[in-house]
Design goal:
It contains 18 helices and two strands. The chain is mostly helical. The protein folds into two domains: about 105-145 and about 335-474, no CATH class; about 155-335, no CATH class. Strands 1-2 form a two-stranded antiparallel sheet. Helix 6 (about 150-175) packs across helix 8 (about 225-250) and helix 7 runs antiparallel to helix 8 (about 225-250).
Length: about 475
């Protein structure tokens, strides 16, 4: 009898640990998602050359390997969990069979695949194709994981975790303190390579950081505790420091992206508020608040431009170039890149020159519109500085149209409210802001040619589909 009692006590003592293990397993998706978004922008590699000087070459490739590896780790965990859950398996099957986002994405990937038969360097085409395939898998997994808002918040807090490391490093560099093994640039710490991708990272992440600030402001108002106040103040400080750091940098594209967000976000807010009262006075008040919000944000951004001298010089310099020579002078070298790329598209409009092969084909077209002064035997131009043109040149106009359909679908999905499933947070505002910022950056830079920002594009696509999916099922 005594032995039986001891056995029952041991079993009872084992129950809490078993419950704890179940709880950890339930939290594992959030932990993995947080780790993925926290570490992927920070991964880099640098070292010392044989002569003892530091080199700063591998800032994109480590992120490429990390993102691919973690994508298949996340996918393996997700599909393993789906295999043991008939409800999840049925939801996944319905998503695959009825969701137009995944269909457009697969069609786009097939268009990329067709282009590789025109590639001068097939190895580069296959490498890019494999990367896009891994991101397609990531899109599918995130679109299903993000059906639960807690996992979206895990991604947002992961991005904020990256900011907590990234922003102080950038401010130290701006103040003149060189961070060991980081590129010595005057601006954000170059864990993303150099100042432009670093500023773009800030512009894309800031809307989600301010969403977290708004969330914790509401939580503190509802339950005014010291802990909630601490989290609110900490997140607000991180978001404001990231905003200031963006202007310490002098990326005109990032500043332009913020201006576009400032003009469009109040309009998105106004459309979101159409779900409320339909009286004419309420509509006028909301329109007035939207216009006031746009004006206030534009004034704030203008003041930040004036406060930080490098940003002011870049904006004023661009304006003076426009006055002297119009758009061609303001665009600088992009004018030649874009014109010659249009000639490339004209010659290969359907299949392009091959995915990832623009830089290998460009020397053949470097003087087809106007001779590119930066293309010579000492320098090879590697990117168009316009992802729309580069996609059309590499993979053909059909591939560009499919991408625009896929991208435009995300703006169309903003019309659907998901407050019933998401609670008080309206994910449309940060999603619209980041989508607009990415659209602007793609027009003047090359985010789709870099591992991290390419992944962020698929993150936005997955978040947009996951948020609207419950409304689309009705």
């Amino acid at each position: 009898m005594a032995g039986y009692v001891k056995k029952r006590k041991r079993q009872a003592a084992a129950k809490p640990s078993r419950l704890a293990s179940v709880s950890f397993f339930q939290k594992l998706p959030e932990i993995l998602v947080w780790a993925f978004f926290a570490f992927s922008p920070l991964i880099f590699f640098s070292g010392l050359a044989p002569d003892g000087h530091p080199f700063f070459t591998l800032y994109d490739l480590p992120k490429f390997y990390f993102i691919i590896s973690f994508t298949f780790l996340l996918a393996g965990f997700y599909f393993w969990s789906v295999a043991g859950d008939p409800l999840q398996a049925a939801a996944l099957a319905k998503f695959l069979s009825t969701n137009w986002g995944i269909r457009l994405l697969v069609l786009w990937w097939l268009a990329l695949f067709v282009s590789i038969f025109q590639a001068l360097v097939p190895a580069a085409a296959f490498l890019n194709l494999f990367h896009y395939f891994s991101l397609l898998v990531l899109y599918l997994v995130l679109a299903r994981l993000f059906s639960q808002p807690s996992r979206r918040w895990a991604a947002v807090y992961g991005l904020i975790g990256a900011l907590i490391i990234f922003v102080p490093l950038g401010i130290f560099q701006y103040l003149g303190f060189q961070v060991p093994l980081l590129k010595p640039i005057f601006g954000p710490a170059s864990t993303l390579g150099y100042r432009n991708p670093a500023a773009h990272f800030l512009a894309l992440v800031l809307p989600f950081a301010f969403l977290a600030v708004w969330r914790h402001w509401r939580l503190w108002r509802a339950h005014a505790t010291a802990t909630r106040l601490f989290f609110f103040c900490t997140l607000l400080l991180v978001a404001l420091a990231a905003l200031a750091l963006l202007f310490m940098n002098y990326s005109r594209t990032a500043i332009m992206a913020l201006l576009i967000e400032a003009l469009a976000l109040p309009l998105v807010w106004l459309l979101a508020k159409k779900e409320g009262a339909a009286d004419r006075g309420g509509k006028r008040r909301r329109l007035g608040w939207a216009l006031f919000g746009s004006l206030l944000l534009v004034v704030l951004i203008s003041l930040l431009i004036m406060v930080f001298p490098n940003s002011r010089k870049r904006v004023v310099g661009s304006y003076n170039k426009f006055k002297r020579g119009g758009p061609a002078r303001m665009l600088e070298a992009r004018y030649y890149h874009w014109g010659n790329t249009l000639m490339m598209i004209k010659e290969q409009p359907l299949t392009g020159v091959g995915l990832g092969n623009w830089r290998f084909s460009y020397p053949l077209y470097a003087a087809s519109f106007k001779r590119d002064p930066l293309q010579n035997y000492k320098m090879q131009i590697r990117k168009t500085h316009n992802d729309y043109l580069q996609l059309a040149a590499e993979c053909g106009i059909p591939a560009l149209l499919l991408f625009l359909l896929l991208w435009g679908r995300q703006f169309y999905l903003l019309r659907y409210s998901s407050r019933e499933s998401d609670g008080e947070e309206d994910w449309r505002l940060p999603l619209a802001a980041s989508l607009l910022a990415f659209s602007v950056i793609m027009f003047f830079s090359f985010p789709m040619q870099m591992a991290y920002s390419r992944m962020f594009c698929f993150f936005l696509l997955a978040l947009g589909e996951a948020r609207a999916w419950p409304a689309l099922l009705k």
